[in-house]
Amino acid sequence: MNEHLLGGKPTAQPEKTLETFENPNTNRDFHIHMEIPEFTCLCPKTGQPDFAVIYLDYIPNKLCVELKSLKLYMWSFRDEGCFHEAVTNQILDTLVGATDPKFMRVTAKFYVRGGIFTNVVAEHRANGWQPQPYVELSQFSAQSNIRG
């Protein structure tokens, strides 16, 4: 029997709550980048599906978002009518509420609909947080570890 099925039905269900875990290194700012390539919701005007890639970039404070709960949260929009701008901001607000990050950016890149691509970017910064200065390092060639 497939362990992911119970009586032929999936055991995982869409969920609006997010689980978190403790930041493993609160002494350092580090960047977490996630790509969610299968985001779907419904057009609130037509009911047709909208598809997007959601990019999540954040610098955690004390908590990080747990990946399985994030997947189930994203799945929860599949049958909801959402304007692109509203759902992007809703995702950011929910994630900020759950994790209270130093910085978070949600970028939603919606696929073409009626000849128009829509990209929506929403950001949050904790009061007083400033990013560390960027350090430019030289790049290694793509094949630098191959003897030849």
TrEMBL record:
Signal peptide residues are none
Cellular localization per UniProt: Cytoplasm
Residues holding substrate:
65-67, 84-85
Question: Top-level EC class, please?
Answer: oxidoreductase
Q: Which residues form the active site?
A: 43 (thioimide intermediate), 50 (proton donor)
Protein's UniProt keywords contain NADP? yes
Superkingdom of source? Bacteria
The reaction(s) catalysed by this protein are: 7-aminomethyl-7-carbaguanine + 2 NADP(+) = 7-cyano-7-carbaguanine + 2 NADPH + 3 H(+)
Q: Which GO terms describe its cellular component?
A: cytoplasm
Q: What is its EC number?
A: 1.7.1.13
Which InterPro entries does UniProt cross-reference here?
GTP-CH-I_C/QueF, NADPH_dep_7-cyano-7-deazaG_red, QueF, QueF_type1
An example of a Gene Ontology BP annotation on this entry? Answer: tRNA queuosine(34) biosynthetic process
**Keyword annotations:** Cytoplasm, NADP, Oxidoreductase, Queuosine biosynthesis
Please give one Pfam family short name. QueF
Q: Name one GO molecular function term.
A: preQ1 synthase activity
Keyword NADP in annotation? yes
Q: Give the metabolic or biological pathway.
A: tRNA modification; tRNA-queuosine biosynthesis
- Role, per record: Catalyzes the NADPH-dependent reduction of 7-cyano-7-deazaguanine (preQ0) to 7-aminomethyl-7-deazaguanine (preQ1).
Which family does this protein fall into?
A: Belongs to the GTP cyclohydrolase I family. QueF type 1 subfamily.
Checking NCBIfam families in the record gives: QueF-II
Q: What is this protein called?
A: NADPH-dependent 7-cyano-7-deazaguanine reductase
Lineage of origin: Bacteria, Pseudomonadati, Pseudomonadota, Betaproteobacteria, Nitrosomonadales
Write the gene name. queF
